[in-house]
């Protein structure tokens, strides 16, 4: 489970809707499309007629009861991208409505994380729904893999008020994020899977230095080419920093 994996930032995930398509260079070895989807379909958890590059809603999961038992740091729609343009607005609004109700009923405030490459759509929807800033139970993450993606997506992240996370995974080249700081968390990871493109630790060290110069929590998920082998050390130590209020 994610809670027991030191390199995972999530406690669990909630996937009332699934689906995505390859969007940019970081999607070449997509862990969902190439790994999770076929595995879940073999297990019978996804109907046989559903294709990985189409969105599919699970009515039994699109309920408050489906989310209530999940605590800690919960990834919302990790099996795809909630802000993919194939996902209707009303499904996104329904997911946010469920999360609002469940979070409001819990004694201990969870952290529900939205994680996307489609930063422009996410910013538009969330700024419309939460014009005064995100609620304290919600965090938003934007994935970038190279400098072009950072320059394109991170300005939209900067335009959201609340807990914001830069996810540099898979990191494919040297990237500077200094002009997009501050944010509340920076996370770095290498590519894994079939024929992974290796990461350069000098890239990671540079991002760490930019991040720590602003006293922002920094986390390394993995630096190797296999998710089965824990390779997380940089300059003689692991980086396991979480923002205040985040607890697996």
Can you tell me about this structure?
There is one protein chain. The chain is α/β, with parallel strands linked by helices and 248 residues long. It has one domain (2-18, 26-238). It is 28% helix and 17% strand. The protein has helices at 31-42, 64-68, 89-105, 119-129, 147-158, 201-213; strands at 12-14, 17-18, 56-57, 73-76, 111-116, 138-143, 163-168, 185-189, 218-222, 233-234, 237-238. The strands form three sheets. Strands 1-4-5-6-7-8-9 form a seven-stranded parallel beta sheet. The chain has a two-stranded antiparallel ribbon with strand order 2-3. Helix 3 links the parallel strand 4 (73-76) and strand 5 (111-116). Helix 4 (119-129) runs parallel beside helix 5 (147-158). The longest helix has 17 residues, at 89-105. The model has no long low-confidence stretch (mean pLDDT 95).
| Shape call | globular
Q: What is the number of domains?
A: 1
Radius of gyration: 17 Å
Q: Largest sheet, if any?
A: 7 strands, parallel
Spatial ordering of strands, largest sheet: 1-4-5-6-7-8-9
What ranges have pLDDT less than 50 throughout 5 or more consecutive residues?
A: none
Structural class: alpha/beta
Mean pLDDT: 95
The share of residues in helices is 25-40%
Q: Note the beta-strand portion.
A: 15-25%
Ends distance:
11 Å
How many helices in DSSP terms? 6
Quantity of strands, as a count: 11
């Amino acid at each position: 489970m994610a809670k027991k994996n030191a390199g995972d930032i999530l406690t669990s995930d909630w996937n009332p809707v699934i689906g995505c398509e390859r969007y940019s260079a970081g999607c070449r070895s997509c862990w969902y499309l190439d790994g999770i989807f076929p595995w879940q379909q073999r297990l019978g958890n996804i109907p046989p007629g559903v294709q990985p590059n189409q969105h599919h809603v699970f009515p039994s999961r699109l309920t408050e009861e489906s989310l209530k038992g999940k605590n800690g740091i919960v990834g919302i729609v990790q099996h795809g991208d909630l802000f993919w343009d194939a996902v209707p607005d009303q499904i996104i609004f329904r997911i946010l409505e469920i999360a609002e109700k469940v979070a409001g009923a819990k004694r201990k405030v969870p952290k529900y994380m939205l994680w996307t490459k489609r930063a422009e759509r996410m910013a538009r929807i969330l700024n419309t729904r939460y014009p005064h800033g995100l609620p304290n139970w919600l965090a938003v993450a934007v994935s970038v893999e190279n400098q072009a993606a950072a320059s394109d997506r991170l300005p939209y992240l900067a335009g959201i008020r609340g807990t914001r996370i830069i996810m540099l995974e898979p990191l494919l080249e040297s990237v500077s994020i200094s002009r997009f700081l501050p944010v509340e968390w920076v996370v770095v990871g290498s590519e894994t899977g079939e024929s992974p493109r290796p990461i350069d630790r000098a890239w990671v060290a540079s991002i760490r230095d930019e991040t720590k110069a602003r006293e922002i929590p920094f986390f390394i998920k993995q630096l190797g080419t296999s998710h089965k082998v824990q390779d997380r050390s940089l300059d003689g130590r692991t980086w396991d920093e979480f923002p205040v209020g985040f607890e697996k």
